[in-house]
Amino acid sequence: MTVTASTRRKARHYAMQALYQWQMAGASLNSIEAEFHADNDMSKTDVAYFRDIFHGVAKNLDEVEGAYRSHLDRKVEDLDPVSRALLRMATYELKSRVDVPYKVVINEAVALAKKFGPTDAFKFINGILDKTAADLRSAEVAADKKG
């Protein structure tokens, strides 16, 4: 399968839902992943990207949360579950997927927040991720501001 913006978007969509389910139900990563493969048509999804995000967030949770925690005005535990899943997912991408421009990561998370998050969550997500991107990808953000 060819990796496109569309297949990556679908991977993020499913990864956010899988992370949400993992946070809420606490089931094993492998059982949640198997359920997603059984319940969804993954033929138009970048499955490797889905897997990388989903397992990467879980394996590096402390590091991922530590990267955005200082920008929050509340505890991570007090975030609504959709915002928590999105911040975890996008921060993991900012840290580990430098092949993806930071603006793409933020825009995709904001789009998912508009679709699935509580009212105005997308503004909160955008603000936190802007600050997190400036920390994690300072050279890329600085170059973008000059350009």
Automatic annotation (TrEMBL):
Record InterPro entries: NusB-like_sf, NusB_fam, NusB_RsmB_TIM44
Domain annotation NusB/RsmB/TIM44: ranges: 9-132
BP terms from Gene Ontology: DNA-templated transcription termination; transcription antitermination
Similarity-based family: Belongs to the NusB family.
One Pfam family recorded for the sequence: NusB
Keyword match Transcription: yes
Task performed by this protein: Involved in transcription antitermination. Required for transcription of ribosomal RNA (rRNA) genes. Binds specifically to the boxA antiterminator sequence of the ribosomal RNA (rrn) operons.
Domain of life, per lineage: Bacteria
The protein's name: Transcription antitermination protein NusB
This protein's UniProt keywords: RNA-binding, Transcription, Transcription antitermination, Transcription regulation
PANTHER family: ANTITERMINATION NUSB DOMAIN-CONTAINING PROTEIN (PTHR11078:SF3), N UTILIZATION SUBSTANCE PROTEIN B-RELATED (PTHR11078)
Organism: Microbulbifer okhotskensis
Signal peptide: none
GO MF, one annotated term: RNA binding
Xref: HAMAP family: NusB (MF_00073)
